Amino acid sequence: MLYEFVKRVIDLIGASVGLGISAPICLVAYVLIKLDSPGPVVFSQERISKGGKTFKLYKFRSMIDDAENILYADPKLLKEYESNSYKIKNDPRLTRIGKFLRKSSIDEIPQLWNVLMGDMSLVGPRAYRPVELANQQEVYPETKKYVSTLLRVKPGVTGPWQVAGRSKINFEQRVRMDAEYASRMSLAYDFLILLKTIPAVLSAEGAG
User: What pLDDT sits at residue 23?
Assistant: First the structure.
């Protein structure tokens, strides 16, 4: 398909240029993360790509080390996490520099490496966690048809939900938007989302 070929070429060029331009920012982020708290600089987490294939998504670490185990050891925190579309307001596990990385979306830069490897695209649906998709479809049974549709394409570094509120949008709204993208995607639509991403990142709307 011509669209898929052109989209892949754009992904390769865009990710390569993006990593080159952001290299100084990545270097500063590396130093700040190392100085701020113990643990790895880059964090990886299992996510789902096209066709249900799993892959390791990379981000700059914005939380304290062992944040996952801390979450599941705290019933109150876990309840908020699972009942709020896998988001925690004022998450106590965020580090000082992590809050800035999240707000500025700098923590997302390593995902450009995922784009180069072919697991992600510059534009696409959210890269969901397997446990998130499984559990949230139980909470919102009507979303199963949307999830089936959005898994037909690669997830993106940015996408329709990221430019429309990010953390403010719940799971049902998110997968509906992602499924709509998967159904109508085109180069023009991708370009529009990329343009909208710039003000969304600068305003930090819904980030966190």
Answer: 96
- Cα–Cα nearest to 126, from 67, 80, 179: 179
Q: Which residues fall within 8 angstroms of residue 155, CB to CB, at 6 or more apart?
A: 47, 48, 49, 50, 119, 120, 121, 124, 125, 126, 127, 128
Mark the ranges of the chain whose per-residue pLDDT is less than 50: 206, 208
pTM: 0.88
Q: Which two tokens stand for residue 133?
A: 């998709």
H-assigned helices in 65-203: 67-72, 75-83, 96-104, 111-117, 130-139, 144-150, 171-184, 187-203
CB 110 within 8 A of CB 142: no
Name the token pair of 57.
């998504």
CB 149 within 8 A of CB 182: yes
The dihedrals phi and psi of 86, each to the nearest 5 degrees, come to 60, 40
